[in-house]
Design a protein that fits this description.
The structure is a single chain. This protein is α/β, with parallel strands linked by helices. The chain has two domains: about 110 residues, Alpha-Beta Complex (Aspartate Aminotransferase, domain 1), CATH 3.90.1150; about 240 residues, 3-Layer(aba) Sandwich (Aspartate Aminotransferase, domain 2). The chain has nine helices and 14 strands. The two termini are about 30 Å apart. The structure holds 4'-deoxy-4'-aminopyridoxal-5'-phosphate. 4'-deoxy-4'-aminopyridoxal-5'-phosphate (PMP) binds next to α3.
Length: about 350
């Protein structure tokens, strides 16, 4: 079978040139007669991979020097615990903004360690928008304020970076990282699981302002302490070498593609095209407030849900894979991360229009 257009929310599509490079490298990487999976993470060859990956990532996101770049395991979900354990004292208040399923999960985990104040919440309109910053009810003494920059399930993305003054801003950027330029200096911590815009699952990107290191609670396991990663180059134990290597190839690919300004231009065009096609039809709809619509995850429903299974079957037969919405909400979702070419969007729109013509 040839490659399909893969609309999976994550693990998600990886750029074809990166897959080609991996295929080429596997049997005999750098002339060593073995793959990158079979060498020590402490070898000079792997250390060079790790250093280059960090340097490229820093360049892509223009990460300021007073920030550390860490690569722990455990996905974004482990960050739901690492953030409170590293930034707050027992019993301290922390602020969270609840805009959907992933911020809810982050809140549930933080509630095990701190007093959570929900500073704003968009459940009143089924998580279809980001509440305006003016109305947020922030605590006086919060250790930090946490947001989910892009809610992967409902497709809601922040159209602004909150101004939290001296309170560190923490953002779960799992499904939006590297999709466009970002002013890192506005954040205390940015974290993202890898399996959307970075590479295979198994590694997590954490960008943390250095003054926030070294404050973990005393009982924090060392592998959950950001300072341990900072001091060891994220190698205090064996890291996921293959995933790290692929992430490095993706960073290199993004740089070669012109960096995040060029990537953002394509992403904006892709998203706008798809939303325009949905809005132009009375058969498909997306409920998200226009200024909060995600560039990366585009959920939509059919006017007749009885046609969902048929839509998915026919789409799959047309080479458009993994369009089923998250199991918690149903409907459809097209995740259109960096690796989705514009031709994939055109193919999806063409298919949707044809499906509407023959079934509406
Ligand atoms: N946050 C967001 C925004 C996500 O989309 C996901 C995964 N889809 C997670 C957290 C959880 O990530 P992981 O499975 O890497 O722990």
């Amino acid at each position: 079978m040839s490659r399909v257009y893969n609309f999976s929310a994550g693990p998600a599509a990886i750029p074809d040139p990166v897959l080609d490079r991996i295929r080429h490298d596997i049997p005999d990487w750098q002339g060593l007669g073995m793959s990158v999976m079979e060498i020590s993470h402490r070898s000079k060859e792997f250390i060079a991979v790790a250093e280059q990956a960090e340097q490229d990532l820093r360049e892509l996101l223009a990460v300021p020097d007073d920030y550390s770049v860490l690569f722990p395991q455990g996905g974004a979900t482990l960050q739901f615990a690492m953030v409170p354990l590293n930034l707050s004292a027992e019993g301290q208040t922390v602020d969270y903004v609840q805009t959907g399923s992933w911020s809810k999960k982050a809140i549930a985990e933080a509630s095990r360690f701190c007093k959570v104040n929900i500073a704003a919440d968009s459940s009143d309109e089924n998580f279809t928008y980001v509440p305006d910053e003016d109305g947020w009810r922030r605590s006086e003494d919060a250790a930090y304020l946490h947001i989910c920059g892009n809610e992967t399930i409902a497709g809601v993305e922040y159209p602004f970076i909150p101004d939290t003054g001296d309170t560190p801003l923490v953002s779960d950027m799992s499904s939006t990282i590297l999709s466009r330029p970002l002013d890192v200096s506005r954040f205390g911590i940015i974290y993202a699981g890898a399996q959307k815009n970075i590479g295979p699952a198994g590694i997590t990107l954490v960008i943390v302002r250095k003054d926030l290191l070294g404050k973990a609670r005393s009982l924090t396991p060392s592998l959950l302490d950001y300072a341990v990663y900072d001091q060891s180059g994220s190698m205090s134990n064996t890291p996921p070498v293959f995933t790290w290597y692929v992430a490095g190839l993706v960073f290199e690919y993004l740089k070669d593609a012109g960096g995040l300004v060029a990537i953002a231009e394509v992403n904006e065009r892709k998203a706008k095209k798809l939303y325009a096609a949905i809005d132009a039809s009375s058969f498909y709809s997306n409920p998200v407030r226009e200024d909060c619509r995600s560039w990366m995850n585009v959920p939509f429903v059919l006017s007749d849900a009885a046609l969902d299974a048929k839509f998915l079957d026919e789409a799959a037969a047309a080479g458009l894979a993994n369009l089923e919405g998250h199991r918690s909400v149903g409907g459809m979702r097209a995740s259109i991360y960096n690796a989705m070419p514009e031709a994939g969007i055109d193919a999806l729109i063409g298919f949707m229009q044809e499906f509407e013509r023959s079934h509406a």
